[in-house]
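[agent] plan:
  1. take the single chain provided in the ticket
  2. run structure prediction with default settings
  3. attach structure tokens to the ticket
  4. add a short note for the reviewer (M.T.)
[agent] executing step 1
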Amino acid sequence: VGFGGGKTLDTAKAVAHALEIPVAIVPTIASTDAPCSALSVIYTPEGEVDRYLILPKNPELVLVDTAVIARAPARFLVAGIGDALATWFEAEACRQSYSANMSGDLGSVTAFALARLCYDTILEYGLPAVISCEEGVVTPALERVVEANTLLSGLGFESGGLGAAHAIHNGLTELAGTHDSWHGEKVAIGVLASLFLTDKPREIIDEVFDFCMEVGLPTTLEEIGLDGVSDADLMRAAERACAEGETIHNEPIPITPEAVVAALRAADGEGRRLMDGVLEG
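[agent] step 2 finished; step 3 output follows
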């Protein structure tokens, strides 16, 4: 039985696989889409992403009590929203590029529809869900977002595929300054950078940045521990993000480490511009 958050649940799944026994997953927070997936993320002792362990099956049982989720600090829920925010963008990239999902197959129409539903759900219900969690109460909005963070995002990434956002997250884990930030917070920065990296329309950029600020996700590098980060360090993260076999190559355009650094800088600049506007207002 895995009881806790993302790393604990991934550990339980990996151990159950090694022992060839069933696994029951009981998340106490909704901070990632780990509970439902047939995958464990393996980290180094230093906190850097090492590899994905693809499992032959999903957990036998996933049991979520939203009353428990509501009593956890709201930052966990917000981080889960950050993880879920990537789902549609990455699945759509795989759809456009005919890239494989996590099982090595092309995504289905159902997978892409679930990924889009995940995005639409968190955009509509994200803020009231966060408010509900801050008050420690279960509301329909909280129920919807917990489902999006755990089930829809898990099904969406596993069956639709991953792209730039998670690869950039993996690169950012190379920098020690980010290790106090949570998975979904770094993924959110990956999403914002991917918007510039893949030349998304202005209205999409505005929509996603405004949403992140609304629910409390980071929009600047400073917020994930990288205040004053050097170009050399960002290049190190970008080279890791662009490593052979990384999911950033599922995007429908060629991507280089230099382009990733430029996108991170552009996203950070937009985040700082918006924050300055809020402070001046």
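[agent] step 4 note for reviewer: Residues 2-66 form a domain with the Rossmann fold fold (CATH 3.40.50.1970).
[agent] ticket updated
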